[in-house]
Amino acid sequence: MTANASSSVPFASPAAAGGAPFVETPVAYDGILLAGFGGPEGQDDVIPFLRNVTRGRGIPDERLEEVAHHYRHFGGVSPINAQNRALKAALEAELDRRGIDLPVYWGNRNWTPYLEDAVREAADEGDTTLLAFATSAYSSFSSCRQYREDFARVLEETGLDATVTIDKIRPFFDHPGFVDAFLEGVRAAVDGFLAQGIAADQIQVLFSTHSVPTDDAVRSGPRDVDWGPGGAYAAQHEAVAAWVMDRISTELPVASDVAWELVYQSRSGPPSQPWLEPDVCDVIEELPRRGRSAVVVVPLGFMSDHMEVLWDLDTEAAEAAEEAGLAFVRTPTPGVSSAFVAGIVDLVEERLRGRPAAERAHVTELGPWFDVCRPGCCENIRAGFKPAAAGLAP
Fold first, then answer.
1. Residue 1 lies in a domain
2. Maximum distance among all alpha carbons in the chain?
């Protein structure tokens, strides 16, 4: 029998089990579950890791090798695990600084250390009421629901579903701690180009995020809202990008002449399957025809400089800009910046204190997002709904 099987939200703490969108009563969590994507840490890990990522899709190894060369270019090592180790240490330090006595357990979906190991470790320590922080800020199947499904799967497969509960910190796409790095990066890049004598109307800002299948995108977020053709996933990115550019234009009026748009990267599906567009490199290629001479690429969809930032942006997008004769700057991700780490702990404190939604930090009109995902949120149309923690069924 699953924990809270009679509740509206399976696998949830009692405070979240009723299914209200915001948990506004304090919860005495025992620990924080840092949930990562995972990545290989050597050449021998690359194909097994990619098999994990694509499990259930029947993709042969020869096709996986087409993606593997991104990792092989960097010695088979993804930076993501080192980044999560650094984030775990930074979170522990910030929690200690604030006097919050909560251990941080780190587990990945696709490579060691696995989520299963982290949850077992927490249970062995007697920490059974967990609050998860997934290392992805937005609403979509791959960036939110898939984590929630993995929490449910892990609890069931370990037999801990009767004793351990997992709630999830809300999607944090518009929390000030997350967006601060992007604001600072765009401001510095635009200032730098202006100082070089490049006119504002010759500068293009491209906010880049991971493309997802269009069918998944339109199903992202609550189903009772018309989010437009890209669903809540695209709407969230657009809202944050607009906020960043509005702030910069307020501080530096000439920047109102700087053009910007949302672009996508890293698509991996078959050509016959529609994914969100336009592609970042395709847009860079056409910028000279728009009269641009400089491009600022902002990794808005990414929390840290992992492989898809290093390869797709620092390698491929940079090469596309060079071929187009454009000055190029790629701005920083939040990483382990002090503002971001403090922001994560602010999000933890929201749930520890039961902070009312009206008092929660956010920079766009879309926020604050929900603590408990709504019914039908972020469906994977190819696989259907599976049991998921931290949300109303299905």
1. no
2. 67
Looking at this protein, which amino acid is placed at residue 93? A
CATH number for the domain that contains residue 265: 3.40.50.1400
Query: Are the C-beta atoms of residues 392 and 19 closer than 8 Å to each other?
Result: yes
Domain that holds residue 163: 31-173+337-359
pLDDT of residue 3: 43
* Of 2, 6, 12, 7, residue with least CA distance to 389: 12
pLDDT given at position 180: 97
224's CB contacts (< 8 A; 6+ apart) are 374
pLDDT in tens, 326-339: 999 999 999 999 99
Mean pLDDT, all residues of the chain: 95
Q: What are phi and psi of 36, to 5 degrees?
A: -110, 170
Q: How far apart are CA 317 and CA 281, in angstroms?
A: 5
H helix runs in 137-260, sequence order: 146-158, 176-195, 214-217, 231-251
Sign of dihedral through CA atoms 62, 64, 70, 73? negative
CB-based contacts of 393, cutoff 8 Å, min separation 6? 8, 9, 10, 375, 385, 387
User: 20: buried, middle or exposed (CB in 10 Å: 19+, 13-18, 0-12)?
Assistant: middle
> CB pairs under 8 A, 24+ apart, for 257-260?
257/199, 257/200, 257/201, 258/190, 258/200, 258/201, 258/203, 258/204, 258/205, 259/201, 259/203, 259/204, 259/205, 259/290, 259/292, 260/204, 260/205, 260/206, 260/207
Q: What is the pTM of this model?
A: 0.96
